Amino acid sequence: MLILGLETSCDETGVALYDTGRGLLAHALFSQVDIHVEYGGVVPELASRDHVRKALPLIQQVLAQAGCAPQQLDGIAYTAGPGLVGALMVGATLARSLAWAWGIPSLGVHHMEGHLLAPMLETEHPEFPFIALLVSGGHTQLVRVDAIGEYRLLGESLDDAAGEAFDKVAKMLGLPYPGGPHVARLAQRGTVGRFEFPRPMVNRPGLDFSFSGLKTFTLNTVKTCRAETGLTEQDLCDIACAFEDAVVATLVIKCRRALEQEGLTTLVMAGGVSANHKLRSQLQQAVAKSGARVFYPAPEFCTDNGAMIAYAGAQRLLAGQHDAADASVRPRWPM
Ligand code: KG4
Ligand code: ZN
Fold first, then answer.
1. Which residues are paired to 200 by β-bridges?
2. What are phi and psi of 243, to 5 degrees?
3. What residues bind Fe cation, as annotated (predicted)?
4. ipTM associated with this complex
């Protein structure tokens, strides 16, 4: 089955071609970061307009790359939610129109299911059942995955998502949007242990998270440094380092707890924050100690992309699912 995947839920236009027999054939991504950077965050209307400009040329590019004609396609998968309503509607309208014109089924996919299944695109991929840590700009969740479509939420952030906390801390430190990679880069030059930030909710039972207190703690540290000596470059690096350490330690503790609670030995990490090197290496070390294994997507498939949507859609289309005639986008959509 040859499936075209289209991702337009936020500020990346992602397109990919996935074949259930041969794997990923081609993919392309256009990031809108340069458009939104001057506003310090995503401007929804600008995002929608740019998806309109980029989606079709990217589809043509991916088909050409793979040497495929539209007539060879068996279906089109697109992100139906959660995300920005206008951005989602651009992808859904285009995908459904093309599917109608080409006489093939379309299917709206859950964005977080795409992230969750992204590690399946790798040659060495996890087997069910596993625990998935989903860490993106909008979500921080621990999910038990027993099969495609069989997901049980074990815990989630009660306030900010981990990526959102990275982005807000980046702003406090004077770094551009999207902040995660910038904070991580600054943290590399930080003095480990100069500041000790709290690990939120680790002393409470359960698998929920909370990152808004950590954000406030970071802001207070910034203010104290500024008042005492003026904020130096080294202060910024040390604060970034302490913040990153606290987020990573918290996520690691909860992942180990989830594996233990569910009696599983496979962990999957996905979503934008899973591109973070410190998180990847510390999770790897911690999980290996207990004889478990951790799987990640390739870095390019950690953040939003079309390949994960093509893969998730292909599995569901293969199982006989497709859009109902009155399908629409779902900006808020629990998984
Ligand atoms: O999954 P994603 O691309 O989009 C959403 O679905 O939200 O995740 C984007 C988030 C942003 O908050 C970004 O700052 C964060 O992932 N991020 C990182 C890193 N790379 C991206 N956070 C920490 N370290 C990174 N290296
Ligand atoms: Zn995402």
1. none
2. -65, -50
3. 111, 115, 304
4. 0.98
